[in-house]
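pasting for ref. prot 1 ->
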Amino acid sequence: MSVITRDLFLYLSNNKTLNRAAQNWGANIASGKIVGGMDFPSSIKFIKELNNEGLSVTVDHLGEFVRSEAVARERTEECIQTIETIAAQQLDSHVSLKLTSLGLDISKNLVYENMTKIMESSEKNQVMVTIDMEDEQRCQDTLSIFKDLKTDYHYISTVLQAYLYRAEKDLDDLSSYQPFLRLVKGAYKESPKVAFPEKEDVDNNYKKLIKKHLLNGHYAGIATHDDAIIEYTKKLAEEYNIPKHSFEFQMLYGMRSTTQRELVKEGYKMRVYVPYGRDWYGYFMRRLAERPANIAFALKGMTKK
Protein backbone atom coordinates (compact mmCIF):
# COMPACT_ATOMS: atom_id res chain seq x y z
CA MET A 1 0.00 0.00 0.00
CA SER A 2 2.83 2.43 0.82
CA VAL A 3 4.34 1.84 -2.64
CA ILE A 4 0.98 2.56 -4.29
CA THR A 5 0.57 5.72 -2.20
CA ARG A 6 4.08 6.88 -3.07
CA ASP A 7 3.62 6.30 -6.79
CA LEU A 8 0.26 8.07 -6.76
CA PHE A 9 1.59 11.24 -5.16
CA LEU A 10 4.67 11.25 -7.38
CA TYR A 11 2.35 11.00 -10.40
CA LEU A 12 0.24 13.86 -9.09
CA SER A 13 3.36 15.98 -8.48
CA ASN A 14 4.09 15.90 -12.21
CA ASN A 15 0.56 16.64 -13.39
CA LYS A 16 0.80 19.94 -15.27
CA THR A 17 -2.94 20.65 -15.14
CA LEU A 18 -3.09 20.28 -11.37
CA ASN A 19 0.10 22.33 -10.99
CA ARG A 20 -1.42 25.21 -12.97
CA ALA A 21 -4.65 25.02 -11.00
CA ALA A 22 -2.78 24.99 -7.70
CA GLN A 23 -0.87 28.13 -8.65
CA ASN A 24 -4.17 29.96 -9.06
CA TRP A 25 -5.62 29.10 -5.65
CA GLY A 26 -2.45 28.23 -3.78
CA ALA A 27 -2.14 31.52 -1.95
CA ASN A 28 -5.35 30.85 -0.03
CA ILE A 29 -4.74 27.15 0.59
CA ALA A 30 -1.02 26.93 1.29
CA SER A 31 0.34 30.26 2.55
CA GLY A 32 1.18 30.22 6.24
CA LYS A 33 0.29 26.52 6.44
CA ILE A 34 2.67 24.45 4.31
CA VAL A 35 4.58 27.28 2.60
CA GLY A 36 5.58 30.66 3.92
CA GLY A 37 3.94 32.57 1.10
CA MET A 38 3.98 33.17 -2.62
CA ASP A 39 7.19 35.24 -2.29
CA PHE A 40 9.93 35.80 0.28
CA PRO A 41 8.67 39.14 1.71
CA SER A 42 5.32 37.54 2.57
CA SER A 43 7.18 34.72 4.35
CA ILE A 44 9.18 36.92 6.70
CA LYS A 45 6.46 37.21 9.34
CA PHE A 46 6.27 33.41 9.59
CA ILE A 47 10.05 33.13 9.85
CA LYS A 48 10.07 35.65 12.69
CA GLU A 49 7.33 33.72 14.49
CA LEU A 50 9.41 30.54 14.28
CA ASN A 51 12.58 32.33 15.38
CA ASN A 52 10.76 33.79 18.38
CA GLU A 53 9.94 30.24 19.47
CA GLY A 54 13.57 29.18 19.27
CA LEU A 55 13.29 27.51 15.86
CA SER A 56 15.86 28.09 13.14
CA VAL A 57 14.78 28.18 9.49
CA THR A 58 15.95 27.46 5.99
CA VAL A 59 14.01 29.06 3.12
CA ASP A 60 13.64 27.83 -0.42
CA HIS A 61 12.15 29.51 -3.47
CA LEU A 62 10.19 26.65 -5.03
CA GLY A 63 10.59 25.92 -8.70
CA GLU A 64 13.11 23.80 -10.55
CA PHE A 65 14.07 22.61 -14.04
CA VAL A 66 14.44 26.16 -15.35
CA ARG A 67 15.02 26.15 -19.12
CA SER A 68 15.53 29.87 -19.64
CA GLU A 69 18.86 31.58 -19.02
CA ALA A 70 17.04 34.82 -18.22
CA VAL A 71 14.89 33.09 -15.59
CA ALA A 72 17.97 31.44 -14.08
CA ARG A 73 19.61 34.84 -13.72
CA GLU A 74 16.42 36.26 -12.18
CA ARG A 75 16.43 33.42 -9.66
CA THR A 76 20.04 34.23 -8.85
CA GLU A 77 19.30 37.88 -8.15
CA GLU A 78 16.25 36.93 -6.09
CA CYS A 79 18.39 34.56 -4.01
CA ILE A 80 20.96 37.30 -3.40
CA GLN A 81 18.19 39.68 -2.31
CA THR A 82 16.90 37.01 0.07
CA ILE A 83 20.36 36.56 1.60
CA GLU A 84 20.74 40.31 2.04
CA THR A 85 17.30 40.58 3.67
CA ILE A 86 18.06 37.72 6.06
CA ALA A 87 21.22 39.52 7.14
CA ALA A 88 19.62 42.98 7.33
CA GLN A 89 16.68 41.74 9.43
CA GLN A 90 18.89 39.40 11.47
CA LEU A 91 16.72 36.38 10.74
CA ASP A 92 17.91 33.01 11.96
CA SER A 93 17.71 31.45 8.52
CA HIS A 94 19.70 29.61 5.90
CA VAL A 95 18.89 29.55 2.18
CA SER A 96 18.27 26.35 0.23
CA LEU A 97 18.33 26.22 -3.56
CA LYS A 98 18.25 23.78 -6.45
CA LEU A 99 20.87 23.98 -9.17
CA THR A 100 18.27 23.30 -11.86
CA SER A 101 16.62 26.59 -10.86
CA LEU A 102 19.93 28.32 -11.65
CA GLY A 103 20.36 26.70 -15.05
CA LEU A 104 21.99 23.30 -14.46
CA ASP A 105 20.08 21.84 -17.40
CA ILE A 106 21.16 24.74 -19.62
CA SER A 107 24.89 25.12 -18.97
CA LYS A 108 27.34 24.28 -16.21
CA ASN A 109 29.14 27.54 -16.89
CA LEU A 110 25.89 29.38 -16.21
CA VAL A 111 25.43 27.53 -12.92
CA TYR A 112 28.97 28.31 -11.80
CA GLU A 113 28.50 31.96 -12.72
CA ASN A 114 25.22 32.20 -10.81
CA MET A 115 26.44 30.22 -7.80
CA THR A 116 29.59 32.32 -7.54
CA LYS A 117 27.47 35.47 -7.30
CA ILE A 118 25.29 33.87 -4.65
CA MET A 119 28.25 32.60 -2.65
CA GLU A 120 29.96 36.01 -2.70
CA SER A 121 26.84 37.42 -1.04
CA SER A 122 26.61 34.41 1.28
CA GLU A 123 30.16 34.88 2.54
CA LYS A 124 29.76 38.64 2.91
CA ASN A 125 26.55 38.28 4.90
CA GLN A 126 27.48 35.01 6.69
CA VAL A 127 24.32 33.23 5.57
CA MET A 128 24.56 29.49 4.88
CA VAL A 129 23.49 28.29 1.44
CA THR A 130 22.45 24.65 1.03
CA ILE A 131 22.51 23.08 -2.42
CA ASP A 132 19.52 20.76 -2.43
CA MET A 133 19.83 17.33 -3.99
CA GLU A 134 17.55 16.49 -6.90
CA ASP A 135 17.06 13.26 -8.83
CA GLU A 136 19.87 10.72 -9.19
CA GLN A 137 20.85 11.70 -12.72
CA ARG A 138 21.84 15.14 -11.42
CA CYS A 139 23.55 13.85 -8.28
CA GLN A 140 27.10 13.72 -9.60
CA ASP A 141 26.97 17.18 -11.15
CA THR A 142 25.55 18.59 -7.91
CA LEU A 143 28.28 17.08 -5.75
CA SER A 144 31.03 18.12 -8.16
CA ILE A 145 29.84 21.71 -8.13
CA PHE A 146 29.54 21.63 -4.34
CA LYS A 147 33.12 20.39 -3.94
CA ASP A 148 34.45 23.04 -6.31
CA LEU A 149 32.66 25.81 -4.41
CA LYS A 150 33.51 24.40 -0.97
CA THR A 151 37.18 24.90 -1.79
CA ASP A 152 36.64 28.67 -1.90
CA TYR A 153 33.63 29.27 0.34
CA HIS A 154 32.74 28.37 3.92
CA TYR A 155 28.99 29.09 4.02
CA ILE A 156 27.90 26.26 1.77
CA SER A 157 26.37 22.85 2.42
CA THR A 158 24.59 20.13 0.48
CA VAL A 159 22.38 17.06 0.82
CA LEU A 160 22.77 13.28 0.63
CA GLN A 161 19.82 10.95 0.05
CA ALA A 162 19.88 7.65 1.95
CA TYR A 163 17.81 5.77 -0.62
CA LEU A 164 20.63 5.97 -3.18
CA TYR A 165 23.12 3.09 -3.22
CA ARG A 166 25.91 5.58 -3.83
CA ALA A 167 25.19 7.68 -0.71
CA GLU A 168 27.74 6.05 1.61
CA LYS A 169 30.50 6.33 -0.99
CA ASP A 170 29.59 9.98 -1.52
CA LEU A 171 29.72 10.54 2.24
CA ASP A 172 33.23 9.09 2.37
CA ASP A 173 34.28 11.14 -0.65
CA LEU A 174 33.04 14.38 0.93
CA SER A 175 34.58 13.76 4.35
CA SER A 176 37.83 15.58 3.59
CA TYR A 177 35.81 18.75 2.92
CA GLN A 178 34.49 18.68 6.51
CA PRO A 179 31.00 19.34 5.17
CA PHE A 180 27.77 20.38 6.79
CA LEU A 181 25.40 17.83 5.23
CA ARG A 182 21.65 17.58 5.36
CA LEU A 183 20.88 13.86 5.49
CA VAL A 184 17.50 12.79 4.10
CA LYS A 185 15.80 9.60 2.96
CA GLY A 186 14.94 10.88 -0.53
CA ALA A 187 11.74 11.91 -2.29
CA TYR A 188 12.14 11.24 -6.02
CA LYS A 189 10.98 8.15 -7.90
CA GLU A 190 14.16 6.26 -8.77
CA SER A 191 14.95 2.98 -10.47
CA PRO A 192 15.90 -0.04 -8.30
CA LYS A 193 19.14 0.07 -10.27
CA VAL A 194 20.22 3.18 -8.34
CA ALA A 195 18.06 3.25 -5.19
CA PHE A 196 16.88 0.91 -2.45
CA PRO A 197 13.27 -0.03 -3.26
CA GLU A 198 12.44 -1.21 0.28
CA LYS A 199 11.80 1.17 3.18
CA GLU A 200 13.68 -1.02 5.66
CA ASP A 201 16.84 -0.84 3.56
CA VAL A 202 16.51 2.93 3.21
CA ASP A 203 16.08 3.32 6.98
CA ASN A 204 19.13 1.15 7.70
CA ASN A 205 21.26 3.08 5.24
CA TYR A 206 20.01 6.36 6.72
CA LYS A 207 21.13 5.28 10.19
CA LYS A 208 24.49 4.22 8.80
CA LEU A 209 25.02 7.63 7.19
CA ILE A 210 24.04 9.49 10.36
CA LYS A 211 26.39 7.44 12.50
CA LYS A 212 29.34 7.66 10.15
CA HIS A 213 28.98 11.39 9.53
CA LEU A 214 28.65 12.28 13.21
CA LEU A 215 31.51 10.00 14.29
CA ASN A 216 33.64 11.64 11.60
CA GLY A 217 33.11 14.84 13.59
CA HIS A 218 31.13 16.68 10.90
CA TYR A 219 27.97 18.72 11.40
CA ALA A 220 24.73 17.08 10.29
CA GLY A 221 21.19 18.16 9.64
CA ILE A 222 19.00 15.14 10.35
CA ALA A 223 16.02 15.93 8.16
CA THR A 224 13.23 13.55 9.14
CA HIS A 225 9.74 13.26 10.60
CA ASP A 226 10.38 9.65 11.57
CA ASP A 227 10.27 9.16 15.33
CA ALA A 228 12.42 6.03 15.06
CA ILE A 229 15.21 7.97 13.33
CA ILE A 230 14.94 10.82 15.81
CA GLU A 231 15.25 8.42 18.75
CA TYR A 232 18.11 6.60 17.04
CA THR A 233 20.01 9.88 16.68
CA LYS A 234 19.42 10.84 20.31
CA LYS A 235 20.66 7.47 21.57
CA LEU A 236 23.63 7.54 19.22
CA ALA A 237 24.66 10.96 20.53
CA GLU A 238 24.29 9.78 24.12
CA GLU A 239 26.26 6.57 23.52
CA TYR A 240 29.18 8.30 21.84
CA ASN A 241 29.09 11.55 23.86
CA ILE A 242 28.28 13.60 20.77
CA PRO A 243 27.29 17.09 21.95
CA LYS A 244 23.92 18.49 20.91
CA HIS A 245 25.59 21.38 19.13
CA SER A 246 27.17 18.90 16.67
CA PHE A 247 23.92 18.27 14.81
CA GLU A 248 20.42 19.55 14.30
CA PHE A 249 17.03 18.12 13.44
CA GLN A 250 15.16 19.47 10.44
CA MET A 251 11.47 19.23 9.60
CA LEU A 252 9.00 20.75 7.17
CA TYR A 253 6.97 23.86 7.89
CA GLY A 254 3.40 22.99 8.84
CA MET A 255 4.16 19.39 9.78
CA ARG A 256 4.90 18.00 13.26
CA SER A 257 4.95 21.46 14.80
CA THR A 258 4.46 20.10 18.33
CA THR A 259 7.40 17.73 17.94
CA GLN A 260 9.55 20.57 16.63
CA ARG A 261 8.92 22.63 19.74
CA GLU A 262 9.43 19.65 22.04
CA LEU A 263 12.88 19.07 20.54
CA VAL A 264 13.78 22.71 21.21
CA LYS A 265 12.68 22.32 24.83
CA GLU A 266 14.93 19.26 25.09
CA GLY A 267 17.89 21.38 24.07
CA TYR A 268 18.23 20.24 20.46
CA LYS A 269 18.66 22.63 17.56
CA MET A 270 15.61 22.44 15.33
CA ARG A 271 15.51 23.90 11.82
CA VAL A 272 12.24 24.33 9.91
CA TYR A 273 12.23 24.14 6.12
CA VAL A 274 10.04 27.03 4.93
CA PRO A 275 9.48 26.97 1.17
CA TYR A 276 7.79 29.80 -0.68
CA GLY A 277 6.62 30.47 -4.21
CA ARG A 278 3.83 29.65 -6.62
CA ASP A 279 5.20 26.19 -7.48
CA TRP A 280 4.15 24.76 -4.14
CA TYR A 281 2.01 21.91 -5.47
CA GLY A 282 4.77 19.62 -6.79
CA TYR A 283 6.78 20.14 -3.62
CA PHE A 284 3.76 19.24 -1.48
CA MET A 285 2.96 16.06 -3.44
CA ARG A 286 6.57 14.84 -3.18
CA ARG A 287 6.53 15.34 0.58
CA LEU A 288 3.37 13.23 0.82
CA ALA A 289 4.98 10.59 -1.38
CA GLU A 290 8.10 10.55 0.76
CA ARG A 291 6.29 9.29 3.84
CA PRO A 292 2.59 8.31 4.07
CA ALA A 293 2.41 9.60 7.66
CA ASN A 294 3.03 13.09 6.24
CA ILE A 295 -0.53 13.02 4.87
CA ALA A 296 -1.99 13.26 8.38
CA PHE A 297 0.56 15.89 9.42
CA ALA A 298 -0.19 17.95 6.32
CA LEU A 299 -3.95 17.85 6.76
CA LYS A 300 -3.58 18.92 10.37
CA GLY A 301 -1.27 21.78 9.36
CA MET A 302 -3.50 22.98 6.54
CA THR A 303 -6.60 23.13 8.75
CA LYS A 304 -4.93 25.04 11.58
CA LYS A 305 -6.05 28.59 12.20
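and prot 2 ->
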Amino acid sequence: MRPLHPPGPERSAEWRRRFGDEARAERPDLSALCLLVGAQADGELDEAGLDAAQIELDRLAGELPFRPGGPRSWATALAEHLGDRCGFRGTPGDYQRLDSSLLHEVLRRRRGLPILLSVVWMEVARRAGAPVYGVALPGHFVVGFGPPEQQVLVDPFDGGRVLTGPDAELLVAGATGAPLDPSMLSPADPLDVVLRILNNIRAWAAARPERSDVALWAVELSLLLPSHPARLRYDRAQLLVERGDFLTGALELDAYAEVVAAVDGPAADRVRRQARAARAMLN
Protein backbone atom coordinates (compact mmCIF):
# COMPACT_ATOMS: atom_id res chain seq x y z
CA MET A 1 0.00 0.00 0.00
CA ARG A 2 1.36 3.43 -0.93
CA PRO A 3 1.96 5.51 2.21
CA LEU A 4 -0.33 8.53 2.34
CA HIS A 5 1.06 11.84 3.56
CA PRO A 6 -1.10 14.94 4.02
CA PRO A 7 -0.46 18.11 2.01
CA GLY A 8 1.43 21.08 3.41
CA PRO A 9 -0.34 23.79 5.44
CA GLU A 10 -1.00 26.12 2.51
CA ARG A 11 -2.43 23.44 0.22
CA SER A 12 -4.39 21.93 3.12
CA ALA A 13 -5.98 25.31 3.86
CA GLU A 14 -7.03 25.65 0.23
CA TRP A 15 -8.63 22.19 0.15
CA ARG A 16 -10.51 22.97 3.35
CA ARG A 17 -11.77 26.28 1.97
CA ARG A 18 -13.07 24.52 -1.12
CA PHE A 19 -14.60 21.74 0.97
CA GLY A 20 -16.46 24.28 3.11
CA ASP A 21 -17.67 26.19 0.04
CA GLU A 22 -18.95 23.00 -1.60
CA ALA A 23 -20.63 21.82 1.59
CA ARG A 24 -22.54 25.11 1.78
CA ALA A 25 -23.56 25.10 -1.88
CA GLU A 26 -27.25 24.94 -2.73
CA ARG A 27 -26.74 21.45 -4.18
CA PRO A 28 -23.51 19.98 -2.76
CA ASP A 29 -21.64 17.73 -5.18
CA LEU A 30 -21.02 14.40 -3.45
CA SER A 31 -18.13 13.32 -5.67
CA ALA A 32 -16.39 16.70 -5.29
CA LEU A 33 -16.69 16.56 -1.50
CA CYS A 34 -15.36 12.99 -1.38
CA LEU A 35 -12.42 13.91 -3.59
CA LEU A 36 -11.59 16.90 -1.38
CA VAL A 37 -11.55 14.54 1.60
CA GLY A 38 -9.03 12.48 -0.36
CA ALA A 39 -6.95 15.57 -1.11
CA GLN A 40 -6.73 16.29 2.61
CA ALA A 41 -5.38 12.79 3.20
CA ASP A 42 -3.09 12.44 0.20
CA GLY A 43 -0.58 15.19 -0.55
CA GLU A 44 0.07 13.69 -3.97
CA LEU A 45 -3.50 14.34 -5.11
CA ASP A 46 -3.46 17.61 -7.03
CA GLU A 47 -5.89 19.48 -9.27
CA ALA A 48 -5.12 17.19 -12.19
CA GLY A 49 -5.83 14.17 -9.99
CA LEU A 50 -9.20 15.57 -8.96
CA ASP A 51 -10.10 16.13 -12.61
CA ALA A 52 -8.90 12.64 -13.55
CA ALA A 53 -11.17 11.05 -10.94
CA GLN A 54 -14.20 12.96 -12.23
CA ILE A 55 -13.29 11.96 -15.79
CA GLU A 56 -13.08 8.32 -14.69
CA LEU A 57 -16.60 8.53 -13.24
CA ASP A 58 -17.79 10.05 -16.53
CA ARG A 59 -16.06 7.28 -18.48
CA LEU A 60 -17.62 4.54 -16.38
CA ALA A 61 -21.04 6.11 -16.88
CA GLY A 62 -20.47 6.37 -20.62
CA GLU A 63 -19.72 2.65 -20.81
CA LEU A 64 -22.97 1.75 -19.11
CA PRO A 65 -25.35 0.27 -21.68
CA PHE A 66 -28.66 2.03 -22.02
CA ARG A 67 -31.25 -0.01 -20.18
CA PRO A 68 -34.81 1.27 -20.48
CA GLY A 69 -37.08 -0.04 -17.78
CA GLY A 70 -37.56 0.11 -14.04
CA PRO A 71 -35.30 0.15 -10.99
CA ARG A 72 -34.35 -3.53 -11.26
CA SER A 73 -33.08 -3.04 -14.82
CA TRP A 74 -30.85 -0.21 -13.61
CA ALA A 75 -29.64 -2.28 -10.67
CA THR A 76 -28.78 -5.20 -12.94
CA ALA A 77 -27.00 -2.99 -15.46
CA LEU A 78 -24.83 -1.39 -12.74
CA ALA A 79 -23.99 -4.76 -11.19
CA GLU A 80 -22.95 -6.22 -14.53
CA HIS A 81 -20.87 -3.18 -15.46
CA LEU A 82 -19.26 -2.06 -12.21
CA GLY A 83 -19.31 -5.32 -10.29
CA ASP A 84 -18.71 -7.97 -12.95
CA ARG A 85 -16.82 -6.23 -15.76
CA CYS A 86 -14.93 -3.57 -13.79
CA GLY A 87 -14.43 -5.56 -10.59
CA PHE A 88 -15.58 -3.00 -8.02
CA ARG A 89 -16.27 -4.77 -4.73
CA GLY A 90 -14.99 -5.01 -1.16
CA THR A 91 -13.11 -7.48 1.02
CA PRO A 92 -12.74 -7.74 4.82
CA GLY A 93 -9.19 -6.40 4.53
CA ASP A 94 -10.48 -3.12 3.13
CA TYR A 95 -11.69 -2.13 6.58
CA GLN A 96 -8.05 -1.89 7.71
CA ARG A 97 -6.98 0.59 5.02
CA LEU A 98 -7.31 4.36 5.05
CA ASP A 99 -7.39 4.44 1.24
CA SER A 100 -10.62 2.41 1.37
CA SER A 101 -12.29 5.67 2.47
CA LEU A 102 -10.77 7.85 -0.27
CA LEU A 103 -12.69 8.09 -3.54
CA HIS A 104 -9.69 8.58 -5.83
CA GLU A 105 -8.02 5.49 -4.38
CA VAL A 106 -11.21 3.43 -4.57
CA LEU A 107 -11.47 4.32 -8.26
CA ARG A 108 -7.86 3.23 -8.75
CA ARG A 109 -7.93 0.03 -6.69
CA ARG A 110 -11.60 -0.83 -7.34
CA ARG A 111 -11.79 -1.79 -3.69
CA GLY A 112 -13.17 0.10 -0.72
CA LEU A 113 -15.61 0.33 2.15
CA PRO A 114 -19.33 -0.15 1.44
CA ILE A 115 -20.05 3.58 1.59
CA LEU A 116 -17.26 4.55 -0.86
CA LEU A 117 -18.23 1.81 -3.28
CA SER A 118 -21.79 3.08 -2.95
CA VAL A 119 -20.56 6.57 -3.88
CA VAL A 120 -19.06 5.09 -7.06
CA TRP A 121 -22.36 3.33 -7.83
CA MET A 122 -24.39 6.47 -7.17
CA GLU A 123 -22.15 8.82 -9.15
CA VAL A 124 -21.90 6.53 -12.16
CA ALA A 125 -25.63 5.77 -12.11
CA ARG A 126 -26.57 9.43 -11.64
CA ARG A 127 -24.47 10.43 -14.63
CA ALA A 128 -26.26 7.78 -16.68
CA GLY A 129 -29.69 9.05 -15.65
CA ALA A 130 -30.70 6.38 -13.15
CA PRO A 131 -33.11 7.06 -10.24
CA VAL A 132 -30.42 6.35 -7.64
CA TYR A 133 -29.65 7.34 -4.04
CA GLY A 134 -27.74 6.12 -1.02
CA VAL A 135 -29.40 4.18 1.78
CA ALA A 136 -27.65 4.49 5.14
CA LEU A 137 -28.45 1.15 6.76
CA PRO A 138 -26.82 0.89 10.20
CA GLY A 139 -23.36 -0.58 9.82
CA HIS A 140 -23.57 -1.17 6.07
CA PHE A 141 -24.26 1.48 3.44
CA VAL A 142 -26.11 0.34 0.31
CA VAL A 143 -27.67 1.89 -2.80
CA GLY A 144 -31.33 2.22 -3.73
CA PHE A 145 -33.02 2.56 -7.11
CA GLY A 146 -36.55 3.78 -7.75
CA PRO A 147 -39.39 5.18 -5.62
CA PRO A 148 -40.32 3.61 -2.24
CA GLU A 149 -43.06 1.42 -3.70
CA GLN A 150 -40.65 -0.02 -6.29
CA GLN A 151 -37.38 0.30 -4.39
CA VAL A 152 -34.56 -2.06 -5.32
CA LEU A 153 -31.58 -2.23 -2.98
CA VAL A 154 -28.10 -3.34 -4.04
CA ASP A 155 -24.91 -3.99 -2.10
CA PRO A 156 -21.87 -2.56 -3.96
CA PHE A 157 -19.55 -4.18 -1.40
CA ASP A 158 -20.80 -7.48 -2.78
CA GLY A 159 -20.40 -6.43 -6.41
CA GLY A 160 -23.87 -4.90 -6.66
CA ARG A 161 -25.86 -7.93 -5.52
CA VAL A 162 -29.58 -7.19 -5.41
CA LEU A 163 -30.86 -7.46 -1.84
CA THR A 164 -34.13 -9.10 -0.93
CA GLY A 165 -36.15 -7.89 2.03
CA PRO A 166 -34.69 -10.59 4.31
CA ASP A 167 -31.17 -9.67 3.14
CA ALA A 168 -31.63 -6.06 4.29
CA GLU A 169 -33.16 -7.23 7.57
CA LEU A 170 -30.14 -9.47 8.21
CA LEU A 171 -27.72 -6.59 7.54
CA VAL A 172 -29.51 -4.39 10.06
CA ALA A 173 -29.90 -7.15 12.64
CA GLY A 174 -26.22 -8.01 12.33
CA ALA A 175 -25.22 -4.39 12.95
CA THR A 176 -27.71 -3.39 15.63
CA GLY A 177 -29.53 -6.49 16.84
CA ALA A 178 -32.75 -4.63 16.09
CA PRO A 179 -35.31 -5.13 13.33
CA LEU A 180 -35.29 -3.13 10.11
CA ASP A 181 -37.31 0.08 10.41
CA PRO A 182 -38.84 1.45 7.17
CA SER A 183 -37.28 4.86 7.94
CA MET A 184 -33.86 3.28 7.41
CA LEU A 185 -34.65 2.86 3.72
CA SER A 186 -35.03 6.60 3.05
CA PRO A 187 -32.58 8.33 0.66
CA ALA A 188 -29.48 9.60 2.46
CA ASP A 189 -28.61 13.29 2.23
CA PRO A 190 -25.22 13.84 0.50
CA LEU A 191 -23.84 15.78 3.47
CA ASP A 192 -24.85 12.96 5.82
CA VAL A 193 -22.97 10.58 3.52
CA VAL A 194 -19.84 12.73 3.78
CA LEU A 195 -20.14 12.95 7.58
CA ARG A 196 -20.42 9.16 7.77
CA ILE A 197 -17.29 8.81 5.61
CA LEU A 198 -15.40 11.18 7.90
CA ASN A 199 -16.63 9.23 10.93
CA ASN A 200 -15.23 6.06 9.36
CA ILE A 201 -11.88 7.79 8.88
CA ARG A 202 -11.89 8.93 12.49
CA ALA A 203 -12.65 5.37 13.63
CA TRP A 204 -9.72 4.10 11.54
CA ALA A 205 -7.41 6.67 13.14
CA ALA A 206 -8.72 6.02 16.67
CA ALA A 207 -7.43 2.46 16.40
CA ARG A 208 -3.99 3.86 15.47
CA PRO A 209 -2.93 6.47 18.06
CA GLU A 210 0.11 7.34 15.97
CA ARG A 211 -2.26 8.69 13.30
CA SER A 212 -3.97 11.32 15.42
CA ASP A 213 -3.15 13.73 12.57
CA VAL A 214 -5.71 11.89 10.45
CA ALA A 215 -8.32 12.02 13.22
CA LEU A 216 -7.72 15.78 13.59
CA TRP A 217 -8.22 16.71 9.94
CA ALA A 218 -11.24 14.40 9.71
CA VAL A 219 -12.96 16.11 12.65
CA GLU A 220 -12.01 19.54 11.32
CA LEU A 221 -13.59 18.76 7.95
CA SER A 222 -16.68 17.49 9.77
CA LEU A 223 -16.93 20.83 11.56
CA LEU A 224 -17.08 22.57 8.17
CA LEU A 225 -20.35 20.82 7.33
CA PRO A 226 -23.38 23.08 7.86
CA SER A 227 -24.97 20.57 10.23
CA HIS A 228 -22.81 18.50 12.57
CA PRO A 229 -22.92 17.14 16.13
CA ALA A 230 -21.86 19.76 18.69
CA ARG A 231 -19.70 17.14 20.40
CA LEU A 232 -17.26 17.34 17.50
CA ARG A 233 -15.89 20.51 19.10
CA TYR A 234 -15.10 18.50 22.22
CA ASP A 235 -13.49 15.75 20.15
CA ARG A 236 -11.29 18.31 18.38
CA ALA A 237 -10.22 19.81 21.71
CA GLN A 238 -9.25 16.40 23.05
CA LEU A 239 -7.21 15.64 19.93
CA LEU A 240 -5.36 18.94 20.26
CA VAL A 241 -4.46 18.11 23.85
CA GLU A 242 -3.37 14.60 22.88
CA ARG A 243 -1.13 16.08 20.19
CA GLY A 244 0.53 18.44 22.67
CA ASP A 245 -1.28 21.68 21.76
CA PHE A 246 -2.38 22.14 25.36
CA LEU A 247 -3.28 25.83 25.26
CA THR A 248 -5.46 25.66 22.12
CA GLY A 249 -7.06 22.47 23.39
CA ALA A 250 -7.86 24.11 26.74
CA LEU A 251 -9.42 27.11 25.01
CA GLU A 252 -11.57 24.78 22.90
CA LEU A 253 -12.64 22.85 26.00
CA ASP A 254 -13.66 26.06 27.76
CA ALA A 255 -15.67 27.15 24.71
CA TYR A 256 -17.41 23.78 24.56
CA ALA A 257 -18.18 23.97 28.29
CA GLU A 258 -20.00 27.25 27.71
CA VAL A 259 -22.20 25.56 25.12
CA VAL A 260 -22.92 22.57 27.36
CA ALA A 261 -23.57 24.63 30.49
CA ALA A 262 -27.01 25.68 29.25
CA VAL A 263 -28.27 22.09 29.23
CA ASP A 264 -25.96 20.10 31.53
CA GLY A 265 -24.15 21.96 34.30
CA PRO A 266 -22.27 18.96 35.76
CA ALA A 267 -20.98 17.97 32.32
CA ALA A 268 -19.79 21.54 31.74
CA ASP A 269 -17.91 21.44 35.06
CA ARG A 270 -16.20 18.20 34.03
CA VAL A 271 -15.08 19.77 30.75
CA ARG A 272 -13.75 22.85 32.58
CA ARG A 273 -11.70 20.56 34.84
CA GLN A 274 -10.26 18.94 31.73
CA ALA A 275 -9.35 22.40 30.43
CA ARG A 276 -7.52 23.20 33.69
CA ALA A 277 -5.70 19.89 33.50
CA ALA A 278 -4.60 20.67 29.93
CA ARG A 279 -3.22 24.06 31.02
CA ALA A 280 -1.38 22.41 33.90
CA MET A 281 0.56 20.37 31.36
CA LEU A 282 2.21 23.61 30.21
CA ASN A 283 4.02 24.01 33.55
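The CA atoms of residues 11 and 177 lie 44 Å apart.
The longest strand covers residues 132-135.
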